[in-house]
Specification:
Elements (H helix, E strand, L loop, with lengths): L1 E6 L3 H12 L4 E7 L5 H8 L3 E5 L7 H11 L4 E6 L4 H10 L3 E4 L3 H13 L7 H14 L12 H11 L4 H8 L3 H15 L4 H10 L5
Parallel strand pairs: 1-2, 1-3, 3-4, 4-5
């Protein structure tokens, strides 16, 4: 039996998703929630096999929800459900730890198969999303070197540590530096990569091949 949690703020869609999934004898919905504020605790409690996560949730978006879940659970398969096919959102979700990405307009036809697919180790995506990723890879070309952005080895170390989901304190402990030094490195990274947030920095570094 495959167990699932649903995070969707639209009441009608959340109910429709629950009904659609419940028609499958191999699926059981353990919980359906309108926000992901308590996602980390809920995943610990229910230990779902699959999580359906909307991106545009109130108070805290689904990408942040994925990050919270991945702090304590690497096993659950997470499918993002969204109306957005924005390149940055796609990559931010995948880098945060999502396993697949479906546009909501395809849910009725493809969701059930996507759940089976992700349970078998696949990464189901709507055609438009797959096209974005292929196009981006083709445009990107060869990975860039950290030196092209004038990143120091220590700044790369900090980025790699943050990409693993570590807090500033954990980064400081891992690299044997102070939290203030971590903040200083991050400030320099933002400036050199021309980004405004940690998520942007990590996503760009991964896309450009600066970290792995």
């Amino acid at each position: 039996m495959t167990t699932l949690l649903i995070y969707e703020d639209n009441d009608n869609l959340r109910q429709s998703l629950t009904q659609l999934i419940s028609r499958e004898k191999n699926f059981t919905v353990m919980g359906a929630f309108r926000d992901c504020i308590d996602a980390e605790q809920q995943v610990v409690k229910y230990q779902p096999d699959v999580i359906l996560m909307d991106i545009d949730l109130p108070e805290q978006n689904g990408i942040e929800g994925v990050k919270k879940i991945r702090r304590t659970n690497q096993k659950a398969r997470i499918l993002m459900l969204t109306v957005f096919d924005d390149t940055h959102l796609v990559y931010d979700a995948l880098y945060a730890g999502a396993n697949g990405y479906l546009l909501k307009k395809y849910i009725s036809d493809r969701l059930v198969n996507a759940i089976y697919d992700v349970m078998e180790g696949g990464s189901p995506m709507s055609p438009a999303i797959a096209r974005i990723i292929v196009d981006n890879i083709q445009k990107k070309g060869s990975p860039k070197e950290a030196s092209e952005y004038n990143l120091t080895p220590r700044e790369v170390d900090v980025l790699n540590s943050l990409a693993k989901g570590n807090s500033y304190k954990m980064v400081a402990d891992e690299l044997f530096i102070s939290i203030e030094t971590v903040r200083s490195h991050i400030k320099n990274v933002y400036s050199k990569l021309h980004v405004q947030s940690q998520t942007e920095a990590i996503s760009k570094a991964l896309r450009e091949g600066l970290i792995h």
